[in-house]
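Quick start: load a record and inspect it. Here is DUF2188 domain-containing protein:
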Amino acid sequence: MPYSKQDYPASMKNLLPDIREKAIEILNALIDEKEMNLEIAIPTAISRAKDWLANRNRTVPDTPTDSKKHGQDIYVTPHAEGWAIKKEKNKRVSFIFKKKIEAVSKARSLARRNHGSLIIQRKNGTIRSKLSYNQS
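Running the structure step on this input writes:
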C-alpha cells in the first residue's frame, strides 16, 4: 500500500515536512522495489530522509581524477602487412610495422606524448592490454 502526504505511518508525524515527504518517497520505493518489511523500511526511510536533508545543499568538489586531461587513444592492431598504429576515430592507419614490438614501442611514445591510452590487440583482434597515460 503506497503512502502519501496525507496517509503515512504514525512514526513520521513529528518529522519536518521536507523530511516527511522524502521519507514517504523513500519508504514507497523500499516497499515497491526491495519488497522490504515495514518494520525495517520505515526507520530506514526516516534515516535516509534525514541524511538527504543534511546533504542536499552540499556540492561534490572536483577531484583531481575528474579533471585529468585525456588525449586520443592509440591502437596497435593486426594488419595485412604486419602491425598498424591507428588513432582513435581515424579510419586510416598512421604507421605500419612488420614486428609487433616496434609498433608497440612507437604507439607507447605517441600515447605518452598525447596523454592518451594505448590499446594493444592480439592477432585475432581481441584486446590484450590497455595502458593509460592520462595527465594528472
